[in-house]
Prior knowledge:
By secondary structure, the chain is mostly helical. Helices cover 74% and strands 2% of the residues.
Amino acid sequence: MLRRTKEKEESRHITDELSEGVNHLRSAAALAAEQAAERLAPAVENARTRAQTTIGPRVERAMDAAAERAESARKMSRKARKQAKAAAKDGRRWADKASDKALRRAEKATAKAEGELSKRHWGRWMLGALGVGAAIGTVGALIRRRRAAEWEEEQEFGYGDDSASVTPMPTPSATGPSGPKSAETPGAQPAEGSFGSGAGDATPSGPDDTSAAHVAGRGQQPEG
């Protein structure tokens, strides 16, 4: 039992010595740190001062240059924006002028085309009217020739419509501007366009006297 007590005392003594040694080491480290700080503090302060005196102005100059560049870039962007707005306005104005000019040209071309079209329509209408008039004139001439041929045939053969009561037209030889004549002058030739006393001698003097010849032909009865 005495042996165990001795061993405990020895271990306690060792532990105390170790703790004292650690404490000595700690205090030695603290002293070393203090001494190092005292030694390095002037150098650090000198380095800091040197950095402030040498690097600080450079940094400030760099910051000022960066600010100037940023400001110039900002001004350039504003100027470019203004130029873009002005160009857009000019382009819009030019586009409006060009569109107005093109619209006026289109209106002029449309009016010209409409005028030419109306002239063409008017010319076609005139040509159509002339064609219709010529056709009507041709048909009228054919009908007149046919009637003249029928009247000449009726006059030649001496037949007509007995049921129609036609009053004979007075001949120019029987009546004149001075009044009715009692008798014809012997040897006098009948006037142009006049008819004789007989139905067989009545010949029209022109295409306008065919109606008179037809009336004279109807006034006589056909011979048996």
